[in-house]
């Protein structure tokens, strides 16, 4: 399978099964589009006809391009076969040691954001803080369930985790105490709205947190529309100076300023540029997750503008990088040479198998987005995963389990997408969230275009 | 190939020859939490060797 698209003046051809990417000129682009369905003499005559006004394109030139394409096919870089679907990958019996936990240390929040998928941190339940004993047991469970895996990830999530900060620090201290003994390496992430960010939190986070996610929606009026304090005021002025100070002291360690966009700001690139103008360089902006009936839900009619926005963002990022004022956008961070192996690309996000969420009471869920759905409870941190049937459902949920994914060019980039989004959109984790797929495909096209632009900066291959 | 430029990418078929080590980051454990994919993840082994 191949995928061809034109973006920002580049003609791009992806060979899906090998992962190869080609930047081609218009003649090669046209020939590739005909190659599998059209006999060589007919390709030649069609091209001679189409390029009749281009003197250098004659039969010999067209034949040379066809030969190049054939060589790429022979070397497995174009029109390569899908060897994975019927290979020996045994998804049901594959080794899926648990390597990541999302600890819901606080099912409560000091902001009252209307669009929060976690219902202001409560996840449709009671407010609660995770006791240290539950967090400690969660780490013990993770260590024992992680088998030979060395790198273990723990995300302090909520609600707002800084509302249970002492427990976070205790959990980190416990992890540092046991990691050498068990030959593990804990990597912590903190996701915070910033309200309680202070010097003490900053110092600790910069020492212990592998990654910190700071929630900011962009422009003041956009941020303040949803991200309100309980007295109804906006939180932009409260958190932005704290985030700026925090990032300044971060010393180059990983962080993201992460926003959510809704139907209210379908011009969301202005929010990303605003973040960049505030001095932040590691940025993420996610489409809102909500019921389709919510007034701020993204609609079908918004898609053309969203596509345009993603393209605009990619072009602006190329420009700013050339001007030495570049920034990173999470969904455009694609490592073509050191990206994931085929196993990762096929097996999906890992929810319910390698990744679990832990509630303040110690219950285990497939991921943070399933918390609050009692039928998805998989066990607890004391007994481990007891709902094996549920775990098997997630194990089998891979790109080849979804009919729509089998014929999709983006399947080895998205790995089947988000199981929670699929469930919320279709009622089944084996379904697909088509709206999300369409946005994902546009983002991946843009991400690859940026890489092509970087790789061909001094090349004249494009017309 | 003057009309085709192949960008350097990881050979996915080659990557199938050894088992996935599983040491890489979990897809959702970074900055998205709501719309994950795997394309922007890194291979733990290869990224350390770069």
* Mean residue pLDDT of chain A: 94
Report the span from N to C terminus of chain B.
28 Å
The tally of beta strands of chain A, per DSSP, is: 15
Please describe the biggest sheet of chain B, giving its number of strands, its sense, and whether it closes into a barrel.
Answer: none
Count of helix runs of chain A: 16
Low-pLDDT stretches of chain B? none
Whole-angstrom Rg of chain A:
24 Å
Q: Estimate percent helicity of chain B.
A: 10-25%
Mean pLDDT, all residues of chain B:
81
User: What share of residues are in beta strands of chain A?
Assistant: 15-25%
Overall spatial form of chain A:
globular
With helices defined by DSSP (H or I, 4 residues minimum), what is the helix count of chain B?
A: 2
> First CA to last CA of chain A: what distance?
25 Å
Largest interface: A-B, 89 and 45 residues
- Given helix and strand content, the structural type of chain B is alpha+beta
Compute the number of strand runs of chain B.
Answer: 1
Structural class assignment of chain A: alpha/beta
Strand content of chain B: 5-15%
Q: What share of the residues of chain A lie within helices? A: 25-40%
Question: What is the strand and helix layout of this fold?
Answer:
The complex is a heterodimer of chains A (463) and B (50).
Chain A: E1 2-7, E2 10-15, E3 20-24, H1 26-35, H2 40-50, H3 59-74, E4 100-107, E5 128-129, H4 132-145, E6 151-158, H5 165-179, E7 185-192, H6 199-208, E8 209-215, H7 220-226, H8 236-248, E9 254-261, H9 269-277, E10 282-287, H10 303-322, E11 328-329, H11 342-347, E12 355-358, E13 363-365, E14 379-380, E15 384-385, H12 388-395, H13 403-406, H14 411-414, H15 419-426, H16 434-455
Parallel strand pairs in A: 4-6, 4-12, 6-7, 7-8, 8-9, 9-10, 10-11
Antiparallel strand pairs in A: 1-2, 2-3, 4-5, 12-13, 13-14, 14-15
Helix pairs in contact in A: 1-3, 2-3, 4-5, 10-16
Chain B: E1 4-7, H1 12-15, H2 44-49
């Amino acid at each position: 399978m191949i995928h061809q698209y034109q973006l920002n003046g580049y003609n791009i051809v992806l060979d899906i099964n090998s992962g190869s990417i080609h930047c081609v000129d218009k003649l090669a682009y046209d020939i590739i589009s005909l190659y599998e369905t059209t006999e060589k003499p007919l390709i030649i005559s069609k091209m001679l006809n189409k390029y009749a006004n281009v003197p250098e394109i004659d039969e010999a030139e067209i034949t040379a391009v066809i030969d190049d394409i054939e060589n790429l096919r022979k070397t497995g870089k174009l029109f390569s076969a899908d060897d994975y679907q019927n290979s020996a990958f045994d998804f049901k019996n594959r080794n899926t040691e648990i390597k990541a936990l999302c600890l819901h240390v606080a099912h409560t929040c000091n902001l009252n954001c209307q669009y929060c998928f976690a219902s202001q941190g409560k996840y449709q339940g009671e407010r609660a803080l995770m006791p240290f004993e539950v967090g400690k047991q969660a780490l013990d469970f993770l260590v024992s369930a992680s088998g030979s895996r060395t790198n273990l990830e723990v995300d302090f999530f909520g609600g707002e985790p800084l509302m249970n900060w002492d427990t976070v620090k205790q959990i980190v201290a416990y992890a540092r105490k046991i990691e050498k003994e068990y030959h593990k390496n804990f990597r912590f992430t903190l996701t915070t709205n910033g309200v309680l960010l202070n010097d003490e939190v900053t110092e600790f986070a910069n020492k212990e947190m592998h990654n910190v996610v700071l929630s900011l929606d962009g422009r003041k009026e956009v941020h303040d529309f949803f991200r309100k304090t309980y007295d109804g005021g906006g939180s932009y002025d409260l958190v932005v100076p704290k985030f700026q100070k925090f990032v300044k002291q971060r010393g180059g360690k990983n962080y993201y300023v992460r926003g959510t966009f809704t139907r209210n700001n379908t011009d969301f690139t202005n929010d990303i540029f605003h973040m960049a103008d505030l001095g932040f360089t590691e940025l993420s902006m996610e489409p809102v997750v909500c019921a389709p009936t919510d007034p701020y839900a993204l609609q079908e009619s918004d898609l053309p503008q969203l596509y345009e926005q993603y393209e605009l963002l990619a072009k602006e990022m190329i420009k700013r990088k050339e001007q030495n004022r570049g920034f990173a956008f999470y969904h455009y961070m694609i490592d073509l040479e050191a990206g994931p192996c085929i196993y990762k690309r096929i097996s999906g996000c890992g929810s319910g198998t390698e990744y679990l969420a832990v509630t303040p009471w110690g219950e285990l869920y497939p991921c943070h987005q399933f918390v609050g759905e009692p039928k998805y409870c998989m066990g607890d941190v004391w007994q481990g995963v007891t709902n094996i049937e549920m775990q098997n459902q997630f194990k089998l949920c891979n790109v080849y389990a979804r009919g729509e994914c089998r014929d999709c060019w983006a399947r080895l980039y998205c790995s089947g997408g988000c199981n929670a989004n699929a469930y919320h959109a279709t009622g089944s984790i084996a379904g697909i969230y088509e709206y999300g797929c369409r946005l994902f495909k546009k983002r991946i096209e843009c991400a690859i275009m940026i890489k092509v632009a970087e790789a061909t900066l001094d090349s004249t291959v494009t017309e | 190939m003057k009309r085709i430029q192949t960008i350097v990418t990881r050979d996915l078929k080659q990557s199938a020859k050894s088992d996935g080590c599983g040491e890489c980051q979990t897809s959702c454990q970074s900055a998205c939490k709501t719309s994950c994919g795997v394309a922007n993840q890194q291979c733990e082994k290869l990224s350390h060797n770069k």
